[in-house]
């Protein structure tokens, strides 16, 4: 139970106690593998115990840490090696997927290694272990939720054009913030092959706009209203022009019409799209393998 009024929370707990047998365990400190701690103006969420148990399970507790979860030239899609037990690989990657609940910085690489579940080899497993070595070095990191942040909703959208070396499908990534707090993030391969960088970025904009809509409904359900339209930042000018230009050029005719709800939201004032320089693109960490300095 949570709320901003301590007196009302106490009254609700008291009424529930009259109806049901219950025990008040005090402030939340641990829930489903997520540790909760508090600082003066907010809450910190992490999964250090869960991560440490996983590190011990895969026998890398004494291995040195690394500064990034994946090498820039990893070559995992085309990696050839000795087959490994799929059940062990699936179990470890599944645990990593759960770790992304409080570790957005490994979302992209976990998405990548998840693609080899059916036929993993030792090279893929080494990639998974490198992610865990990174997790080991950042085991106390997590999400800081500030209680006095503004109610401005904004997000970053990005994509890698034809990033998969095997299928040439692209991957959509976004991160969405409510004030200073990161509240939603994703790294997901697109369903179809795209024929231009503008198209792939536009599809990413559409996915992010849909997430904005869903978050807006959740905020309304808890009686939190955003007074200004959410701002969506993208580093591709061609895709941004497509959100405001009503003319369909030949190069964009093949973009499915259902993605043009982005343009409709912009026209209705429900969404603002803005350009962001590539070096200021925060979602890059969800898009590609970065070097140590950038990461």
Automatic annotation (TrEMBL):
<feature type="domain" description="Reverse transcriptase Ty1/copia-type">
    <location>
        <begin position="2"/>
        <end position="70"/>
    </location>
</feature>
<dbReference type="InterPro" id="IPR043502">
    <property type="entry name" value="DNA/RNA_pol_sf"/>
</dbReference>
<dbReference type="Pfam" id="PF07727">
    <property type="entry name" value="RVT_2"/>
</dbReference>
<dbReference type="InterPro" id="IPR013103">
    <property type="entry name" value="RVT_2"/>
</dbReference>
<protein>
    <submittedName>
        <fullName>Uncharacterized mitochondrial protein AtMg00810-like</fullName>
    </submittedName>
</protein>
